[in-house]
Amino acid sequence: MSCPYKSGYVTLLIAVFYCDISLFTAQTDYAPYFYDNGPNSNNGNMALLNLSEDTPKGTQIYVLNGTDPEGQPVKYGMTFEPGSKEYFHVHPKSGTVTLIEELNREAQDEIEVFVSISDGLNKVAEKVSVFVMDANDERPQFQTTPSIVDVPENTTSGSSIYKVQAVDRDTGSGGSVTYFLQVTSGYESSRVYLFSFPSLIGVLRIKPGETLDYEKSRTHFITVVAKDGGGIYKGKQQVMSSSATLTINVIDTQDTPPVFVGTPYFGYVYEVSSPGSEIFTVFAKDGDMDNPNPIIHSIESDGVFAINKTSGCITLKVYPAELRREIFNIKVKASEVSPEGKLLDFAVTTVTIRVVDLNNHPPTFFGENGPQNVFELTMYEHPPEGEFLRGLKITVNDSDQGSNAKFHLRLVGPGHMLRVVPQTVLNEAQVTILVEDSAAMDFEKSQFLTFKLLAVEIDTPERFSATADIIIHLLDTNDNAPKFSSDFYIARIPENSPGGSSVVSVTASDPDSGLWGVVKYSIYGSGADLFLIQPDSGIICTQPWASLDTEVKSKYNFYVKAEDTEGKYSLAEVFVTIMDLNDHSPAFNENSLEKTMVIGAPVKIEAIDEDAEEPNNVIEYSIMKSDPDDIFNIDADTGEIKLKPYIKSMDIIQNISSNKDCTWSVVVQAKDRGSPSFSTTKVVKIDITEAVSGSSLIRENPMQFLGLVSGVIIIMVFVTVFISTVIYVRNVKSNKILPSRRIIRRKRKPWRQDDFHQPFREECCGVKFRNEDLEIPTADNINCNNNVKGCFHRTPPSPPDAPVMPPPLPSHFRHGDREWTVPTVSASVASKTKKRSDRCKDNPVNTALVSELKLRLEQKNMANRY
């Protein structure tokens, strides 16, 4: 049998032989090859290439580089073992190699790849290895998690209790692991310091000097951190770590004595207790709660008390009457018993037992005849504050002893009218009720008052209590004055109302009872003369003889008084306004019925309506008839009569009429706007002339000019006398002198030291009086006629204050010190010579003027001073 290897070798030699023959027979062509630049070069045949595992996908990691001996262009190729992952891709022309898959050294640290170069005829392939270098991309991994460790509480300090192990698959410093305990804030952080943890070996120990205590903490949760040594990852230094929680369960051991629960202990012996009565039960348990031992109880006593050794119930052995002390402090011992019956650890506590009275009596209220729970009293309203209610005799008692007989007294009722004394009682006390708020005890608000008197125990668990009703019947007194429904009343009544007409009804009420509540009415005041009031009903009427006229007086105010039978009263003010009626016809001024009209200038006629209010006193003027017609116009508001605009000379007038004396009669009507309306008709004679200059009049007719001047002077004198007379008449009525200008006074001498500044004093004859600070207004139009310029109608004022009498004249004023003449139209007041002093002294006008001026000046100085 021939060897198969030998036959194959022969076949190979034959192939080589024929190949050599073909090479020699044809032109020689050499295969391309790679450059071998070594492992540190980034181009060549890619042999021994080192590549970091954190190289990003898509990175150009290498360039295949080779050549063809004949200079033919070459192409590069790359293949992998069948079934293996393809990590790289090569560009066939440029030879650039690109990473197309993520690298992971821990999964595959070496990659085998076939690289090839071809010139089209020959292809050369080489197998190369690419080594994946480590990067610090892995965290330390704990081998056993979660970890639970059971440690007996009596483990000695410094003992090892657990070994922690973590593995990092990185190499170098990135694969080295150190350990430490993580400390967090809060209560758990304090438990970490019970343990020590060397960083390299990972062994957890109880720290020297520390011990575990099951009774304080049964479980400890420890966070262990494993950290690598750090390394480069994606060009940066990176340290990675992981943590795990270690649960340490402390196992209880028999090292704690028994514990009494619910201390301190207090027990009580009551007056009804008997031998064998349960006083108190103590409760003890083993301090080692996971494996407790049985507990037995014992007592150290002098034969008064006994205890059940199993249940811990303390009982009385004698009657309470045999006890010689009020308080007993007894020692109770609780001992552990081992399964063998041996006494182990023990604990001792004190039980305080107090002998007390039994709280079996509630507080009780007593009257004069024994226990009572309703007390009644009759008294007048508004008793003095601080006074005690004498008609109440109340005693309160609690038959118990000590703290059981201590209780509070409290009075419950409307408001804070009454107060109880005392407020804290021990055993027994006399109850006193004091008046706290006298005003609240009002018969008009409530005719009887009901209160609850409470007695409540303070320091007892039963909180026994008792109540008693206190009923107070109030008697009325005359403690209220009548009260009007309003502080003031406003009424309006037409003028010319017949006597006895009703004006307004006032109402006042008195809440008191009986005769004290009967109200009588009366009126008084300076404005009450024309009115009367019905004393029972409060209806105010005009006097039977009263005649109301707005033009005389339009406003009245007075007081109305409401009074009860004992003289208690209240006041209200009444304001009455007299409403104007249209009861006057316009009246022409007789002096204006004959007029001389200069062509181009108007003449004015005037009528006055004595009604007081608009529109009753508003006058309209009209021309009813004239001869010839259509020659005059009249202003309906002012009464000015003018010639028609086309009449500009006497020639035109003479052409219109045959009347050569140029005097015409015009029938003019004055009509008011009231309802119903009244009118008056008068004939006005108008003499029409042309304007004549003064110089021509003197030359042509000097006597006529002289007569004209004399006439003007006479008219001025007449007007002066007329105005003076009017002023005198007004001042006699109103006792007021109202000059139209300031009164001028010369420089005064030094003031006298009086209570008021002295505005008047004696001076030499001919000295004028002036006061630069005093403005005296002119008199208003009394009827407020709208045809007079500057007149206005005032709206009704707000309710005025009560009338006040003017202050008396100063004591140093003397009527005879200075005399004054009646002021003229220029409002100058000149002093007269002493020759006429006797006559001036008796002049009432002078006296009124001086009094008025002095009074006004003193009032002004008083206002400035205060």
How would you describe what is shown here?
The protein has 7 helices and 58 strands. It is flat and about 170 Å long. The chain starts with a helix and ends with a helix. It is a single-pass membrane protein. InterPro entries: Cadherin-like_dom (IPR002126), Cadherin-like_sf (IPR015919), Cadherin_CS (IPR020894), Protocadherin/Cadherin-CA (IPR050174). This is Photoreceptor cadherin. One of its GO terms (cellular component) is plasma membrane.
Brief digest:
With 866 residues, the chain is mainly β. It has a 5-stranded antiparallel beta sheet, with no helix packed on it. It has a 5-stranded mixed beta sheet with strand order 33-40-39-35-37, with no helix packed on it.
Which ranges are low-confidence, i.e. pLDDT below 50, for 5 or more consecutive residues?
Answer: 1-26, 185-190, 736-842
Biggest sheet features: 5 strands, antiparallel
Q: What is the structural class? A: mainly beta
Secondary structure tally, helices: 7
User: Strand order, biggest sheet?
Assistant: 32-31-34-38-36
What's the average pLDDT? Answer: 77
Through-space gap between termini: 160 Å
- Taking Cα atoms only, what radius of gyration do you get, to the nearest Å? 67 Å
What is the 3D shape? flat
Query: How much beta, percentage-wise?
Result: 35-45%
Find the count of extended strands (DSSP E, 2+ residues): 58
Share of helix, binned? 10-25%
